[in-house]
Model the fold of this input.
Amino acid sequence: MSTTATPPCKKVMVIDDNDVDLYIAELCIQHFSFAKELVLQQSARKALDYLLSLKDNPGELPELIFLDIRMPEIDGFGFLDEYEKLPEIIRKKSIIMMLSSSLNEEDHERAAKNKFVDRFLTKPLNKEKLEGIKFIEGRLINPQKSVTQ
Done:
């Protein structure tokens, strides 16, 4: 992935309460020109509010959401429960990938079973992980599972 290439994603959102993890994700996405626009949210609630605020402007929704599991107030799985209640126009626009340091097998299984989660990536985000995500014209062309939204 070249630093001068056209970004494969128009907009990516990272949801993580940890400042260091957000910073690493931001640097990686920017350095490897993965997205034209990056939205960082430090809580699941703020991320849900942000998505809902764009329901009348779906072209501004992120194509890809990197979601942490362990967060205060609402964790990643709580986010997914609330995400399911959002209007369909929002749910069908964004692809969710869990980005977590969790080694808990139950977390991995829950993520794999969730219809909104395409894959589970282990932190930190890096060049190899980004290169494994292929987008063409805003569509993921190498999903790890068929995501029903």
User: Anything to note?
Assistant: The mean pLDDT is 89. The two ends are 29 Å apart (CA to CA).
